[in-house]
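The record is passed on directly below:
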Amino acid sequence: MFDKWRKYSYAAQKSQRHRVRRILLWIAVFFIVYTSLTSLVFSMKALETNAMRPGFEAGDRLVFSSYRIYSLVPGLKMDYSSLPFRRGNAVLVDMSLKEKPKLFSQLLDGILRFFTAQRFGLLKGREQIYLKRVIGLPGDEITITNFVVRVKPKGDAYSFTEYELWDSPYVADIPQVPALWDESLPFSGNMEKILLGEDECFVLSDDRSNTNDSRTWGPVPVRLIAGKALFRYWPFTRLGRP
């Protein structure tokens, strides 16, 4: 009898439609808030490589701050002192920011990621996001000899090793390179002096045998640094600040 009442009663059908609308509205609001937060405030990433050993391992899951919000401020140009990261910080370098995808593609990508718990996305196959360590800031002078990185900060008369200038402590994995290795290659751990531009940073892998960093890319524009590692939430055995 109750089922028949719901089937033939206009009031019951109207109430059901209102309930469905409320549910859809809450889903839409949650999606907008979630997408805004993960795009402009923070993001969560799972590491897929061991390029940042020994501090990070493949499979680690981390929460990152997001610097995309700065791109929305017209005419904003951050100077040396106002950069949201420092030497020694682990940051996300997003090479895909060189070519900004269309708004519709970004929206569809966000919807797919939201409803698949980040497993699938329209732009996922085109992502070029890397976790790296900030070694040099704009205006710094960088040299590398036998994997020892020396930094001469902008406006300073002296150079220092990277560990004397770090904001966050870390340990680099220095490889054992054969004596006859070609020193012209980045893998040899040697690099002639370079001077960073006013909007450039120098980033390295903690595993210095991994050459997929500024030794091969060259200096990285500040606008390609998309966020800073804030917190590791997996595995639980290494829970906390990275």
